[in-house]
Amino acid sequence: MALVNLVTSLLATSIIFIVLGFWAATSGHACVEKGVSKLMKLIDKGVLPQDAKPPENILLQPPLDYLDWISSLPRHLQDQVVHFSPSCSIKEQKEKFMEGPGLAFAAFSQVVSLFPASSLWAILFFLMLAVTELSTLIRILEGIVVPSQNSIFRNYPQLLSVVCLGGFLGSFVFTSRPGSYIMSLFDDRLVPLTLITIVAFQNVALAWIYGAKRFREEISSELGHFLWSFFTFLLCYVTLPGLLALLIICLIQLYQRVPPYYIAWNSSVTQEVKQPYPQNTLGWVTFLSILTLLPIPVHPLYQWWHLQDHIASERFEKPLSKKMPLAPIKHFAWPKHRLVKSNFKMQEGNSESSLKVFSLTLDKGPDVVPLRQSNLPSIVSTKTGVSKFFLQRTG
Predict the structure, then answer these.
(1) Does residue 48 lie in a domain region?
(2) Handedness of CA 124, 125, 129, 132 (dihedral sign)
(3) Do 248 and 152 form a contact (C-beta atoms < 8 A)?
(4) Cβ 90 vs Cβ 64: under 8 Å
(5) Are residues 309 and 295 in the same domain?
(6) In this predicted structure, what is the pLDDT of residue 215?
(7) How many distinct structural domains can be found in the chain?
(8) What's the confidence (pLDDT) of residue 154?
């Protein structure tokens, strides 16, 4: 499984870099086409003079020739062309959508539209996103529903439906008008901190409380062969320090002096600007992060509380369990004469059954009817000395 995950990660990483390389190679020419088209419209409207008209063969030249043409213009025309032309800097374009969900939805969509047979690649890209998100969703549901049903909600078989319905209704927040900003806020502020904290607690519970060696032995028994002995060292002394370092970095970025911001479109200046998040939004994010981490201390307290109730109930019921016998136990008096040894060499099942039946009837006292007539044939059929003796005593 680890090898499959490694190969999948390497394959996905290589595809991402191939696509981004294709985008970097083609984005310059697309930006030049956009800039030339905008300049021609401004010249037709009379905003720019005819001297600002690009050369006719500029689209057939490399993007660097377009920059050289802008540099050759007079100073006043150069400032006007630069002001009205879109920025073709790869660094500035990368900052717009190369982080978070923009990498999957903006960058890849733009690159796929430039591929040959773009319709086919768009369908494959959509199917890839659907399969990836469904697999992630199934893993999240398994991590939530299975432990909850095994520990707390054992009598609620509809828990899976409730969780799916809650997730579906909660997803409408991200499809609203400010949904992209909320998703970016969750991706930057909420998810990294809570995810690293939960994984760090899991590592502590598994490696230091449950025991890394015992966990390694159980995994080895399931696989049928021993794991690498260095596995326990990695689990105890490498994974946890790495998680703690990531947690410290997240806390530093979360509580740094620079206020968190998001990129929004400002229609008054017709460009994207950085806007700080409102304080109430950050308060909601803090509340949701605490709510997400709340099951970590709540579940041990829940188990401890029920354990204390169980111990208290056992202490309360312990004196009541000591009941005195209602009647004294009567011991059976064996005969004084010796029994013949050959009589005891019969089958053990018949003799044991007869002993159980008659010992129960004799212990009940003389007022109880000793035997039923239906039991006599099976007892007489044994023809043992013990059975004959019992028949004489009870007859």
Answers:
(1) yes
(2) positive
(3) no
(4) no
(5) yes
(6) 85
(7) 4
(8) 78
